[in-house]
Structures are given as C-alpha cells and as structure tokens.
Design goal:
Structural class: alpha+beta
CATH topology of the largest domain: Aminopeptidase
CATH architecture of the largest domain: 3-Layer(aba) Sandwich
Distance between the termini: 42 Å
Radius of gyration: 21 Å
Strand content: 25-35%
CATH class of the largest domain: Alpha Beta
Shape: globular
Helix content: 10-25%
Number of helices: 8
Largest sheet: 12 strands, mixed
Number of domains: 2
Length: 362
C-alpha cells in the first residue's frame, strides 16, 4: 500500500483517547509486515522493535500518538438529546452543524449531529456568537432517553467527528485525524525503510495512546522501552494560510519540520526544549541526504515528549513533524509527501547514530 492509502485507512478509523484499540490493531498489522517483534503494552501502546546493527549504541524510540480528540457523553436528556463535554482541545466555533459518531458500550459507532438552532429562528444577537460545547446537543434521531440507551449509548461514551478523507490537489489530503495519523503513517514507512536498510542502533517504533487527553501514554511506553533518545512525531502548524502567514515560516509541501520550542502554561507548565545533539543530528542528516528541514516554534502547544524527557535518567528528546492546516477541526489538511520525507529523514538519523553520539545535553 502507498502512504496515501495507509493514511486514508488510518484517518477513517475512529480512535478517541482511551478507545484506541481499533487503530492500535491496524497499526500493529501494518508494522508486522516489516517487524518481527510487535506488541501492545498494558495501556494500549503499540511497540515495534527494529534491531540495529550495533545493540551497544544508545537505544532510540520514535513515536506518534494514535488517538484523536473528541467528546464524552455527560448526560442523556429525557427527550433523547445528548449533552457532551470536550475530550481534548476541541475548537468550539466549528461545532454547530457537524456530523459525528458515538461509540456505544458494545463498541459500535452510531451517527449523530450537533444540531444548530434553525437559522430562521436565530436572533441577530446570536448569529455571531460562538456556542460553548456545553450548550450544544447531539441529535441521534431518538425521541427518548430509553431509545438512546437501547442503542447502547450512556454517560461516558466517547464521540468523534464523523471520519472523513478527501484528496485535494496533488499529494494533499483533507479530513479527520491528520493529527496524528500522519505520524502513524510515517512509523509504517520507517519500518518499511528499515527492512531494506536497518538502523545503526536499536529503534522502537511506537504508536502511543492518550496524547490528546493527558499526554502520558508515551510515558508508559518509555518505561517499557527505556530509551536513551527519542523523537516525537506530530503535526506542526502550517504557516502558509492567510491567518498564520505572519506567525510561522513552515509550509506544506516543503518537507518535514523540527519543532524547536513548545510550551503550555495553562496548568501543566511543561514543554520541550530541543536536545542540541539530536538537533545537530537532524541538521546533519538533512544536509547529507540533500533533504529540506523546516523549523517551527510555538507557545500553547505540548506533545508527549515533554513527559518522555523526564523518564529514567533523562531522555534526549527532539520533536519533529509535518506541517498541517486547520488542526483539531474535521478538515485538517496535509501533504503526504511531507509525511514520507519525515519518515525518510528520521530513518536516516537512526542510521547515523554512532559511538560518538552524546546523550547528555552537552
């Protein structure tokens, strides 16, 4: 399968935080085509080991999260309408009128919609107001709470955007969960490339859980893998749209990015400053391979590398990714060529780790 076909399969697989099993088994199946040792740990992380040419070298973990953001059912009204709360960073201004799917307790997915107030009955003062998710209701067509319960839907059931995939111009695609099924696709491509030419060090390719919820799933994988160095694969905010052109330099179609600063100050007070030897390795690899490497830095963003770096005696971490537009909406856009280039660059880095690589910060 091509990367675009794999990405499509992954994007059309619903996997909210805490309910990643369907995505986990699909990723495991793809990785097993190239890796002999693929397991799923107790919390649901998919871990594929790729033996290196020299097992005495530092151990590496390259990972991307499998989960996506969504909602959790908070209350089923007596008339059959459903109230929800956010599961992850949902942008509330895109919600009214959206198609959704709700996972019942038996694992089936049921369609629903966020029904906005009829336009003809919306007063002028409400037409430019953003409705909070707690003021919206999901309509599944039921006329009573009992009908909803008969579908297996109760308080605590997860909800996601209706899965979507659409090809755009060239190698660009749009739809749901580009964040972070693009990284999962890159992991599969890395596994394929390692089958042809193995890395220098032992590399663990990991699909992680819970990133959109609490960023701690990858931390649990690290406790199994015990890496010395790690690369987090995730989206970066493409700076090539009208609203972000003055804020960021990275552009879709111009290659992978290295994320040089991330920080989230609300509650977590956490982030990642790049491990300089890892950054130098990325730059050297890109130069030697004749590949582009874009730079990205931003406040208000956090990836699970922020917690990975604190494991054990400390893990040498670098955040890398691919530019994506309209993140956390149902119409995320990316360029599949950037995902392939990200995989190729990261694979090249893993082939260049040698005895001189220093896992300390300096």
């Amino acid at each position: 399968m091509s990367s675009k076909e794999i990405l499509k399969e992954f994007m059309l697989t619903s996997a909210p935080s805490g309910y990643e099993s369907e995505m986990a088994y699909k990723l495991k199946t793809h990785l097993e085509q190239y890796c002999d040792d693929v397991t799923i740990d107790r919390v649901g992380n998919v871990i594929a080991k790729v033996p290196g040419r020299n097992p005495a070298l530092p151990r590496a973990m390259v990972f991307g999260h499998m989960d996506q953001l969504g909602f959790i059912v908070r209350k089923v009204e007596e008339d059959g309408f459903i109230q929800v709360d956010r599961l992850g960073g949902i942008p509330e201004k895109v919600l009214p009128g959206l198609q959704l799917v709700i996972r019942s307790e038996d694992g089936k997915w049921h369609p629903g919609v966020f029904g906005p107030k009829a336009h003809h009955a919306t007063p002028a003062e409400e037409k430019y107001k953003v409705d909070l998710v707690t003021s919206l209701f999901i309509d599944v067509g039921a006329s009573s709470a009992q009908e909803v319960h008969d579908m297996g839907i109760y308080v605590g059931c997860p909800v996601v955007y209706k899965p979507a995939f659409q090809e755009l111009c060239g190698s660009k695609v749009a739809g749901t969960a580009v964040d972070n099924r693009g990284a999962c696709t890159a992991l599969v491509e890395m596994a394929r490339q390692f089958k042809e030419e193995p890395p220098a060090c032992d590399v663990y390719l990991v699909g992680t859980v819970w990133e959109e919820f609490n960023l701690r799933g990858a931390m649990m994988a690290a406790r199994t893998v015990k890496p010395d160095l790690a690369i987090s694969l995730d989206v970066t905010l493409a700076g090539d749209t009208k609203d972000l052109a003055t804020k960021f330099e990275d552009k879709m179609g111009e290659g992978p990015c290295v994320h040089l600063y991330s920080f989230h100050g609300r509650g977590t007070l956490n982030g990642t400053l790049p491990h300089e030897p890892m950054f130098k390795l990325a730059k050297r690899t890109a130069q030697e391979m004749g590949k582009p490497l874009q730079r990205f830095a931003s406040l208000g963003i956090l990836t699970d590398s922020a917690y990975i770096q604190l494991e054990g005696e400390g893990v040498a971490c670098l955040e890398m990714g691919f530019p994506a537009r309209y993140t956390h909406t149902p119409v995320e856009v990316c360029d599949v060529q950037d995902i392939d280039a990200l995989a190729t660059l990261c694979a090249g880095m893993m082939r260049r780790v040698d005895e001189s690589f220093h896992v300390g910060r300096y």
